[in-house]
Structures are given as C-alpha cells and as structure tokens.
Specification:
heterodimer; A: 2 strands; B: mainly alpha; two-stranded antiparallel ribbon; 72% helix
C-alpha cells in the first residue's frame, strides 16, 4: 500500500531514531567475552589488551564516526589518562575505580581546554591541530623539566594498584584484570550507546552530516562538538587509565602517534559510526598483531599498510558495513520471494 | 664565556639550514594539501625514499653524494608519479578520512620496506671532506655543510620562484591553484598540472631527504617522525601557499633551534606550543595571504 508522504516521513524519522536502540545483539560480545574466560584462560592478558583497545577505539568512534571530528591526536587523551591513573596510584590513592574516575576527569579537562580551540577549525587544519596537541603532550612528558614527574623515557613504574572494590586483588594470571577490563568496556559501551541514542547524539550526527544546516536550525554547533569531544576524551582517558592500571607501567609510547593510527585502523577495519565496529575492529587488530608481532613486527606493519589501503578502496564501511550490506541484500531477496 | 653574538649567529645558521630542509620537504605537500585537497600523510615517505636511494647508491661505491642526488631525485619522482596515477587516484573523491587512512597505509608500507632492506639503524650519508669542515672567523664557527644546505636550498627556492613566475607551466599552475574551475574553462588540463606538480614535489622532498641526513638522520620511522614538523610548516604557511611555506619553514626552523638552546628543559615542546598558538591566532595559516 502506498503511504501518505507524512507517514512515510514519520517512518523514516522513527527508523532514524531507533537505529541504535538496544537489542539482544548488544549482549553477544559480552557473552563471548565471558565464554573466553572459561575457554581460554591462557589468553586472558591478550583479552585484556583487546578490551583496552576496544574502549579506546569506541571513544574515537564517538568523536570521529558520530561527530565527524577527524582526529589524529586522540592518543592525547589516552596518554593523559594513563599518566593520570599512574601518578594517582603512585602518590594519592591505589583504588582502581577512583583512579579511573580521576583519569576521566583529566581527559575531559583536556577536551575542555583544547576542544574550543581545535574545533573552531575544520578539515585539514583540525587534523593538524589534533596531531600537534598530541605531539605537544608527548614532548611535554618527555621534556627534561618533567622528568621527576613523568619519568621521561623510562616512564612510570613500580606503583601498586589496590583490589577492585576493595575485594578483588589483581593477580598474576590476569583474572581480576580481565573481569575489571570487561566491566570498564561494558561501562564505556553503555555510556556511548546512551549518548548516541540521546537527542544530543542525534544532533551530533546531524552536525556530522551537515553542520551549516544544523547551525541554521539553531543548534550551537561548536558547543555540541566540544561537549562530545570532552565525553569522548574522558572515555579515551578511561581506556588509558585502564591500560596503566592493568599493565602497571606508563611509557612515552602511551602518547605516541602510532596508537592514534592503530585506533584509526581498528575503526576502518570494523566500520565507523557503529559502536560494534570498534569491538570487531579492535579484536581483529589486537589478536592479529599479537600473533604477527611475535613472528615479525615489520612485516606486520607492511600487512597493516596493505590492509588499510585495500580497506579504503574496497570496504570503506568496514566489517560492520559488509555485514549490513549482506543483511540488506538478504532482506531484499526475501521480500521478492 | 661564549660571545653572545657568536652564539646567536651560530644558532641562526643552524636554524636557517633546518628551516630550508623543512621548506624543501613542504613544497610538494602544500600543493597536494592546499590545492589538490588530498590529505597526504605519505609525503615524508618520499623524502625518506630519496635519502635511502642515495644511501644505497653511495654504498655501491660507484656514486658520490653529487652523482647520487640526481638519480635519487629522478627515481623518487617516477615513484611519486606512478603512485599518484594509481593509489592516490582511488581517494580523490573519498572524504578526507579515506585519504588519511590510505596515505597512512602507504607510510606503513614504506617504513616496513625500508626496514626490511636497510635495517633499523640510524644512517647518515657520507659527506665529501670539505663539507665536514668548519671555518672559524674569530668566535664565529661556520659549518660548511650548513652553508652548503642553505646555498642549495636557496637556489632551489629561487628556481622554483622563477618557474612559477616566468614559465608557462608556472602560469598554468598558478591559475589552477587560484581557481581550478576557471582554469579548466580556459583549457588548462588541471589534473595533469597537478600530477606534474605532485611528481616535482616528491623530487624536492627526495632532495631534502638526501641533503638533510646530517640534520635529520635516516631511519625507518623517518616518514612518520618528520611528518609532524612538515605538516606544521604547511599549516602555518597557509595551505597551498609556497611563499607562506618558505617563511613558515624559516620561522619554525629558527624557533625550534633557539627554543632547544635557550630552554633545554622544555626540549621540543617549545615548537609545538608555538605552532598551536600560531594556528589558534590564525587558523588559515600565519602567512596565508602572502
């Protein structure tokens, strides 16, 4: 039956609004993670690394996939969170959750300070500024004057992390670390999903697709983007803090451009603008790089490079996009039958 | 106690030499970024390619720095042209993100290849004897190498300016830069002009890679390591402005050199901080209107 234009519009709006709502699929990755715990105990540290990168990639997806902020410097937040969590555990308090909270505040603070400046610009200048901010932070951590605080090239180490919730101490086999990381990822996912679904999230997607039009509709574009940048920064800082707590080590490489690059690779592999893309991409990337790096790190780099070029050329929407295409084709075929 | 004037002159020479190397590297990038609108993160990989090609040629024993230089430049130009015709073509119409990712992939491939062929050591090209000398005039020490770099880069910059200003190709390029649509309308083959410019940019970067090894030593991560300063030069200079890049490169070279000498505690932090401030003051580039 042909619908009236109005109900057609209403349907499209409804679909737009419900696209990211909760479904049973959301539980799948977490069930999978629990199954991994019982099935492959030896891989818990690797699993924990996957979780850290999932959280980081997801935070980048918020800024880049939903907000359209092409950031090459997201590692600034990750590193800031890592250093904050490490320093906090070393000098103030060893409680991990308190540490992550402080790290998140630090990330949001950096977003608040740099956001209004960086997000005034667009396009290549923005890319360059995010890169410059991240490099600036790395040079700051490496500067001679900061050595007594950051440890310079040696990094931060030798700090202790207290038991999670005062009950579960971190163990060498990484069991507590795994559950803790899983909890943190669940939290990051929950927050991201809530934000993406909120009216704020819709406004953000609108800004990504057409900032001029959103401004004409009366939306204060820069303020929304800065808010998003702060939230995304706080989540990235949580990922960094998690890394600092689980590995009990913070080095200059936690502020290195390569981490930003890796997160971008994960997102393009998995697909941007859908939080599952971050999960899939980070899992593929970390597991593959763990296997490949054990064999030959530089050939692995070659493989990532080739993979990136091919992904941009042939699958710009990533794994999630491929799945979505398949599902749509399937639906069309079923509709015809 | 070292004479203040002598110190300042020495720092000026160092800073200008560094700035000149940055300028040679940034010429190609400012055209691709500002004019072709391609976020080309792989530009420094061409400088690295040039440097390593010269390194390999000189290692064979049949070449000196001056015979290896033109060969390295020409081969890098050919490589740049070939890549521009193939993989870069894929991302001309995708968004900026696709370009960033694709060129980042290229950088990784370059880094991995160089590491496979040359190992991960720091390398510098052997120099002719006269270049490693320093001339002393009273307190002032003058490094022959840095003088050479300044002389070569300045003449290249001059040649570039002359080509842009007085040749027909220069006129075509300027037209294509100022208004691509209008240039097309009057019959200029804009994509071809850009292709040629891209190849020349790669060649200049290769020259910088060969000449600058005493300042920026060759290593596999070269392509990523010096990308940030070169990007900063382009951003501060204003996208697409060659003159802007020239002034910005000199400014950043001097700021970095003086910053490292007078504020050693902050190290390389000074330059990044300065660039962020400059870009916040003028997001379109400090020298954009020159």
């Amino acid at each position: 039956m042909s619908a009236t234009p109005n109900s057609e519009t209403a349907k499209r709006v409804r679909e737009g609004l419900t696209r990211h709502h909760w479904s049973w699929i959301d539980a799948l990755p977490f069930l999978f993670a629990v199954a991994i715990y019982f099935a492959a105990q030896g891989y818990l540290p690797l699993g924990t690394q996957v979780m850290i990168q999932i959280a980081f990639a997801m935070s980048l997806d918020l800024a880049l996939g939903y907000g359209g902020i092409d950031s090459l410097g997201h590692v600034a937040f990750f590193g800031a969170g890592a250093y904050t969590a490490g320093l906090f555990a070393m000098h103030v308090n060893q409680d991990p959750i308190l540490g992550l909270t402080v790290a998140a505040v630090a990330g949001a603070f950096i977003g608040l300070v740099t956001g209004p400046l960086v997000l005034r610009t667009r396009g290549l200048t923005l890319v360059m500024l995010t890169l410059a901010v991240a490099t600036m932070l790395q040079e700051l951590a490496n500067a001679n004057a900061m050595h007594p605080i950051t440890g310079g090239a040696d990094g931060l180490f030798g700090y202790q992390i207290g038991p999670v919730l005062g009950l579960f101490p971190f163990d060498l086999a990484g069991r507590t670390g795994y559950w803790y990381a899983l909890g943190v990822v669940a939290f990051v996912f929950l927050v991201s999903k809530l934000i993406v679904n909120s009216p704020f999230g819709l406004a953000i997607r609108g800004i990504r697709d057409n900032p001029v039009r959103m401004r004409m509709l009366g939306v204060s574009v820069t303020r929304r983007l800065v808010t998003l940048y702060c939230i995304s920064g706080a989540l990235a800082a949580i990922a960094g803090g998690l890394s600092a707590q689980v590995t009990a080590l913070v080095g200059l490489d936690s502020l290195a451009f390569l981490l930003s690059g890796n997160a971008l690779v994960m997102l393009i592999l998995g697909g941007t603008g859908s939080l599952y893309g971050a999960m899939i991409g980070a899992t593929i990337f970390v597991v593959l790089s763990d296997r490949a790096a054990a064999i030959d790190p530089f050939n692995w780099l070659f493989a990532i490079g080739a993979l990136l070029i091919l992904a941009v050329r042939f699958a710009p929407q990533g794994v999630v996009g491929l799945i979505r295409d398949q599902a749509q084709r399937h639906a069309v075929r079923r509709g015809r039958a | 106690m070292l004479n203040l004037g002598a110190t300042i002159i020495a720092l000026l020479i160092d800073g200008v030499a560094y700035g000149m190397i940055l300028f040679l590297m940034s010429v190609g990038l400012t055209v691709t970024l500002g004019v072709m609108r391609i976020a080309n993160l792989a530009h420094c990989a061409f400088a690295m390619t040039g440097g390593y090609l010269a390194f390999a040629l000189i290692s064979t024993g049949h070449f000196t720095l001056f015979t290896a230089l033109p060969v390295a430049v020409v081969v890098t130009m050919a490589l740049g042209a070939a890549l521009e015709r193939t993989v870069y073509r894929w991302v001309y119409t995708t968004g900026q993100l696709g370009q960033i990712l694709m060129t980042l992939g290229l950088v990784f491939i370059f880094v991995a290849t160089v590491n496979l062929l040359f190992g991960s050591d720091l390398n510098a090209l052997p120099m002719p004897k006269w270049m490693s000398e320093t001339w002393n005039y009273g307190d002032i020490a003058f490094s022959a190498y840095r003088g050479f770099i300044i002389a070569v880069s300045a003449s290249l910059a001059l040649a570039l300016w002359a080509i842009l200003e007085f040749t027909e190709f220069g006129a075509r390029l300027r037209a294509a830069v100022d208004n691509p649509r209008m240039a097309r309308c009057v019959g200029i083959d804009v994509p071809r002009v850009f292709s040629v410019t891209f190849a020349f940019g790669c060649g200049l970067a290769a020259a910088a890679g060969v000449l600058g090894t005493q300042i920026l030593p060759l290593e596999p991560w070269y392509a990523l390591e010096y990308l940030v300063p070169v990007l900063m030069v382009v951003a501060v200079g204003g996208l697409g402005s060659l003159k802007g890049s020239f002034y910005a490169a000199l400014l950043l070279g001097l700021v970095d050199t003086f910053g490292r000498y007078y504020v050693p505690a902050a190290g390389a932090f000074v330059i990044y901080f300065a660039v962020v401030l400059l870009l916040l003051w003028r997001p379109q580039g400090v020298f954009a209107r020159i």
